[in-house]
Amino acid sequence: MKFPKIYNTYFVALVATVGGMLFGFDISSMSAIILTDQYIEFFNNPHGVQQGAIGSALAAGSIVGSIIAGPISNKWGRRWSIMFACLWWLAGTAIQAAVTGAGTLIAGRVLNGVTVGITSSQVPVYLAEIAKKEKRGSIIIIQQLAIEWGILIMYFIGYGCSFIPGPASFKTAWGLQFVPCVILMIGIPFLPESPRWLAKVDRSEEAIKTLAKIQADGDPNDPLVVAEWEEITTVLALERQSGGGLGIFFKKGMWRRSMAGISVQIWQQLSGANVMTYYVVYVFQMASLTGNVNLISSGVQYALFIIFTTIMFFYIDNLGRRTLLMYGALGMAACHFVVGGILSAGEYVPGGVDNNLNVLIQVTGSKSHTVIAFSYLLIIIYALTLAPVAWIYAAEVWSLETRATGMGWSAVGNWVFNFALALFVPPGFANITWKLFIIFGVLCVAAAIQVFLTYPETCGKTIEEIEEMFSDGGPRAWHTKPGHSKLDAIIEQVKEKHVGIDDVARGGSISVGAVAKDVEMGKA
């Protein structure tokens, strides 16, 4: 059965990024619940490594999902890899809704994690491949907004369900995770396939038709379509000449792209922001917030997350990726140092604050207000910088032949460290307390240094053009600037020379590739 396709890129992004909402749902499905009496009693007050295992189960499954995502996406296409991911979510959510103990909870979260690993890696790939270069950031940032809305919605669902007595409180909250998955499964058949994936699997006629509908209301001879199609086919032919296999990730300048694509995701985790998103209730307990006040105050941070990422939706394609990553990391470092410094003067509570064995230090008065304020500020900086830009940058740096698998490996980097941190943070709070924040501050400074030295600017470039930025003869990272795409000049030359899509397909005497070379040499 053929479903009608909707080619508006913002609509496509809204449907596809429901996959991100699944990610957000699973993150906060624990945050509002782990402090409730029902959860503590049912799971026998889990703490330390046991609570870390529960929290990190999602990331463990996501590692698996990220590893298998590339091959699945290359074989079946970007859309159907997302549909495949939904099946894992249905199984994981069913297990969580019928949870009988810590073991089944971990199993359900692992299965949900497989979904998150696939969607978190392939939705940005899909969006990067359908978006215009000048709108690519704002399109991909919708994925981050969907994650944040998922976090906020599920957090307050969990908070509302906390008033239900007994295990039904968290089972109801976890069971409601079915809803966004079903919405996503209904919407996927109405989305077009990525024109770049269609080109990759030699479905050229369908690729041109889809590219034309997305970029030019269906006109295949629109100069933008002609120029972009020539870019896609030329770069694809060159990539195929270099061979396949894992070795392609390390040939010529590709090793730089592999390093950038994977490390940007690792730094997003090592920035320490997930200490707040996963365990903010613990941090606020250190700041003497208890009960409903703690839960509501923790929910405020998720609202701030959405507000400030929404602001970036309007500006992300006018600001450089390097600038946001570098100064965002430095700003987060400052917040970590302040929080760690304030907590270092806190009171040690051997039995745990409010009997919570994960929280052994507490501050009061103005110190607690400072901790809360800088925790909020850290999340605001993260929402403006590393949270959306790390996913955008990772989706942009790969070539067409390597994008699905490469983005999968980027996500593996993200989820390996997400897993390690989710497992490490609860015992870290118990054993090194405030020093944990100092560690994250130092890591943020290291991230800023690598961004400055090795991340060229990708904002405003076509995803084919970015290949040149990482080549052996490419510019130094700190010499690159947003915009200045050659595609705009090529489009003007296409108009002047009256090149059509058939000329490109035939490889005739008037070649967009030759025009591109003229532009590069300054003749156009």
TrEMBL record:
Ranges of residues in domain Major facilitator superfamily (MFS) profile: 12-459
Membrane topology summary: Multi-pass membrane protein
Cell compartments where the protein resides: Membrane
Gene3D superfamilies in alphabetical order: MFS general substrate transporter like domains (1.20.1250.20)
Keyword Transport: yes
Alphabetically ordered keywords of this record: Membrane, Transmembrane, Transmembrane helix, Transport
SUPFAM superfamilies: MFS general substrate transporter
GO molecular function: carbohydrate:proton symporter activity
Transmembrane segments: 12-34, 54-73, 80-99, 105-127, 139-160, 172-191, 266-287, 299-317, 324-349, 369-394, 406-426, 432-453
Gene Ontology cellular component list: membrane
Keyword Transmembrane helix part of the UniProt annotation: yes
InterPro entries: MFS_dom (IPR020846), MFS_sugar_transport-like (IPR005828), MFS_Sugar_Transporters (IPR050360), MFS_trans_sf (IPR036259), Sugar/inositol_transpt (IPR003663), Sugar_transporter_CS (IPR005829)
Predominant location category: membrane
Alphabetical list of NCBIfam families matching this protein: SP
Family, as annotated: Belongs to the major facilitator superfamily. Sugar transporter (TC 2.A.1.1) family.
PANTHER family, alphabetized: MAJOR FACILITATOR SUPERFAMILY (MFS) PROFILE DOMAIN-CONTAINING PROTEIN (PTHR48022:SF47), PLASTIDIC GLUCOSE TRANSPORTER 4 (PTHR48022)
Name of this protein: Major facilitator superfamily (MFS) profile domain-containing protein
